[in-house]
Amino acid sequence: MIEQVRVVLIAPRNPLNIGAAARAMSNFGFTQLRLVNPYAVAFREARSAVNAGAILQGAREYATVADAIADCTLVVGTTAGTHRELQHPLYRLEYGGRLMRKHSGRIALLFGSEKYGLSNEDMTYCHWLMRIPTREEHGSMNLGQSAAVCLYELIRTAPKVKPEPRKQATSEAVERLTKLLEDVLERAGYVHDESTEAKTRRLVRRMRISEHDAEIWAGMLRQILWKIGQG
Amino acid sequence: MIEQVRVVLIAPRNPLNIGAAARAMSNFGFTQLRLVNPYAVAFREARSAVNAGAILQGAREYATVADAIADCTLVVGTTAGTHRELQHPLYRLEYGGRLMRKHSGRIALLFGSEKYGLSNEDMTYCHWLMRIPTREEHGSMNLGQSAAVCLYELIRTAPKVKPEPRKQATSEAVERLTKLLEDVLERAGYVHDESTEAKTRRLVRRMRISEHDAEIWAGMLRQILWKIGQG
Q1: Boundary of a domain, candidates A128, A155, A182
Q2: Which ipTM was obtained for this model?
Q3: Which of B212, B204, B218 is nearest to A87 (CA)?
Q4: Minimal CA–CA distance to B149: which of B92, B82, B93?
Q5: pTM reported for the whole predicted model
Q6: Which residues of A touch B (CB under 8 A)?
Q7: Tens-digit pLDDT profile for residues B178-213
């Protein structure tokens, strides 16, 4: 899927934004950057920046949107989507990303210029549009951030598998710890009756302690116990 | 959930990054920004930028991480997570975001300085760490982009409901269109036998055409039919 995507920046004017879009691509493993009619100075500056990588060096320049998307079978436009009557289906990024992942051919992902976004004419080349679910009151995102969020959505994986938890302490270890704590509390003169014992037991269990931490706590409590015995 | 989150930038040095983090917060509806020991000039510049909004004006400054997170019940650190032995559980953003959404108290979300990320000491204040699933070869993200991606994950909603499709054309309308196309092809002298008829029928059905577009096509074909009849 990553290899299928062409990131297309239309008429970008700020070298920092071009660089930021390229950086997000690199972070997430995308490689194919296309620029339509970029502001020449900006493109030159972005390319000559110290940290400009292979993506900017390999970026291709096109005179028109039609040229830039000619070899793609799906063309997706991004928009803040609040300012005009859209003639296209408009999906939230979460859903649009899913559609893109299902597509099997080359995909062009279009970002409009910093100031105006995609023009109505740019949009006529799109199969559909997608918007990042920003607040209505402040919908417009910075170009570099917008690219980062869209590309993240494309490589994001649903967290089906819970990451391996740290090895939990066995009940036996928890019980040993409980006894140790009770001993310490008793020797320390902490009020100790049956209700305290139950409270202590629950207290220790609520720690949901790992095997590793149980050992550390046991060591500490033994040391305290020894110290109290000394006194 | 959005109201629970405090975005904490630790020792940020670049006013553009501070501004970008604030902008992403505004885009996604987060309001509480905290800065630990920021580079004074950078904070001043970010605050006096033309587009600095309420978030930067209301941002609070702290001398230490401990002060900045004192009122929070969950502290989450962000890290590229490749350069050192981590003593903490490290989750991918997709899973960490889910844990954060489940938490019911105040949450501090920590971002380290642009150059060094979170220090080992900063991390000792964290319950766990999370990483954006970037490539190993280029893990480190720009601060503003990293903030945008993390906050997007927090407000992201699973696309359970398919967006309302455009009203599809009825079979009757599709059949009318098919007949029109057949008429045009026949009059135009396009090879016409039973197999062509079946092909045409399937062709039109594969358009999965909307009610609206079916009407437009019908109008076009009627015009073509009229023109052919004239000739």
Answers
A1: A155
A2: 0.79
A3: B212
A4: B93
A5: 0.80
A6: 16, 20, 23-24, 26-29, 53, 89, 91-95, 98, 132-135, 138-142, 144-146, 148-149, 152-153, 155-159, 162-163, 166
A7: 899 888 888 888 876 777 777 888 888 887 888 888
